[in-house]
Design brief:
By secondary structure, the protein is of the alpha/beta class. The protein is built from ten helices and eight strands. The mean pLDDT is 98. The structure holds 5-bromo-uridine-5'-monophosphate.
Length: 258
């Protein structure tokens, strides 16, 4: 796939501040790498963020898997995100009626709206989930991704579902900045595509995850590669992060020039 616009050129197509910030970080750090920091202890999460912070444009969390969650964990993550210049994406996958997702987004122990630059939601619920989250998040300069596709084998999120998800997003382009998907799903340069299920070593795990390489995702038009175990389970996670960053970036640079 030939890329028409660079990350930098796409900034002007976006209205949401998180989209603008993310694209400018990609350009500055020459990184389209997001790490999936799936740690169950706060210390391990912070130490990992510190270790790979300089390599990434975004850090993805599952805050509800921490066995020792404390607001200080968030404070430290935020300090690191400012120091190392990355955005924070809480992979919460909201999927309920508007009233419930509002309570989940701003309340409970995690109060995600206070710290997560980005969150995501399933479109299976219908478009009102977007307005509900937007009511809470937009005034705090937050952004939303919709799940248009998934990397899990046998997913129902494909074809018409993906198309309908794209249409829903069109109604809320001030808050939705892009999609979880496996490839580019529209010709509009304002959308940013985030792809999980990325690894060099394996093509699947034992629990339904499927993998492609950074190059195959970027060639398919994805913008941001999301890598978890490929990095944090590597012998040398810092070096692995650097290798994934370089692979993602060189595929991007090639797709711009070819
Ligand atoms: P892995 O260790 O690289 O397989 O981790 C992938 C991460 O991305 C993990 O946190 C998942 O929850 C997340 N993920 C995914 O793998 N596939 C999806 O479709 C979505 C999220 Br949405």
């Amino acid at each position: 796939m030939i890329r028409e616009y660079s990350y930098e050129q796409r900034i002007e197509f976006c209205s949401n501040p998180v989209a603008k910030k993310l694209l400018s970080i990609c350009k500055e750090k020459q990184s389209n790498l997001c790490v999936a920091a799936d740690f169950t202890s706060s210390n391990a999460l912070i130490a990992f963020a510190e270790l790979v912070g300089s390599e990434i444009c975004m850090l993805k969390t599952h805050i509800d898997i921490l066995h020792d969650f404390h607001p200080n964990t968030i404070k430290k993550l935020q300090e690191l995100s400012h120091k190392e210049n990355f955005v924070i994406f809480e992979d919460r996958k909201f999927a309920d009626i508007g009233n419930t997702v509002q309570l989940q987004y701003q309340g409970g122990p995690f109060k995600m709206v206070e710290w997560a630059d980005l969150i995501n939601a399933h479109s299976v619920v219908g478009p009102d989930i977007i307005s509900a989250l937007k009511n809470i998040g937009l005034s705090s300069n937050r952004a939303l991704l919709l799940l248009a596709e998934m990397s899990s084998s046998g997913t129902l999120a494909k074809e018409e579902y993906t198309e309908a998800t794209l249409k829903m997003a069109e109604q809320h382009e001030d808050f939705v900045i892009g999609f979880i998907c496996l490839k580019k799903i529209s010709n509009n340069p304002k959308w940013i595509y985030f792809t999980p299920g990325i690894q060099f070593a394996n093509d699947k795990d034992d629990l339904g995850q499927t993998y492609q390489t950074p190059d195959s995702a970027i060639k398919a038009g994805s913008d941001i590669i999301i890598v978890g175990r490929g990095i944090y389970q590597a012998e040398n996670p810092k070096q692995a992060a650097s290798e994934y960053r370089k692979a993602g970036w060189s595929s991007y640079a090639f797709s711009l020039s070819s």
